[in-house]
Amino acid sequence: MDIKCSIAGLALGLLITGCSSAPQPIIDTKGVNMSVYEQDLAECQQYSEQVDTSSGVAKGAAAGGIVGGAAGAIGGGSGTRGAGVGAVIGAAKSGGRAAAEKQAVVKNCLRGRGYRVLN
Q1: How far lies 43's CA from each of 8, 38, 49, 59, in Å?
Q2: In a domain, 17, yes or no
Q3: What domain range is 27 assigned to?
Q4: DSSP one-letter code for 23
Q5: Is residue 118 part of a domain?
Q6: 117 domain residue, yes or no
Q7: Predicted local distance difference test score (pLDDT) of residue 53
Q8: pLDDT, tens digit, for every residue of 75-117?
Q9: Which of 47, 66, 90, 99 could be cross-linked to 60 through a Cys-Cys bond (beta carbons 3.0 to 4.6 Å apart)?
């Protein structure tokens, strides 16, 4: 039970860190009215909230659980333990992809508004 809690805690920490540490877009500020930019950035971030992260994480967890369970059973170990580990890894990967997609939405939105996004 302790290993499951440790793995789940580690995965949750990775998900939270991955989402919170997503880099802000870096723009070329030459000639940019920063108050207008801040408003545009906020609006673009609101658009990025339309990215459905919950179903992606759930699907990743389910797929990871299936693969992990099968691998654990084939390897002679506990299919249940493998499923748990696989589910955590699958959820973490899907969470990272969703965070990257949200950042792409923000950057594309800013580019569409005429900003030179550098990262």
Answers
A1: 34, 9, 10, 28
A2: yes
A3: 2-112
A4: P
A5: no
A6: no
A7: 73
A8: 566 556 666 666 667 666 666 788 889 999 999 999 999 999 9
A9: 90
Reference 73, options 61, 64, 82; nearest CA is: 82
Structure tokens at 39: 């408003």
Judge whether 49 and 99 are in contact, CB under 8 Å.
no
The Cα 90–Cα 113 span in angstroms is 35
25 assigned to some structural domain = yes
Element (H or E) spanning 8, and its range?
A: helix 2-20
Q: Is the dihedral of CA 3, 5, 7, 13 positive or negative?
A: negative
Structure token digits, residue 38: 């801040």
88-119: burial string, b at 16+ Cβ within 10 Å, e else? bbbbbbbbbbbbeebbebbbebbeeeebeeee
**pTM of the shown model:** 0.55
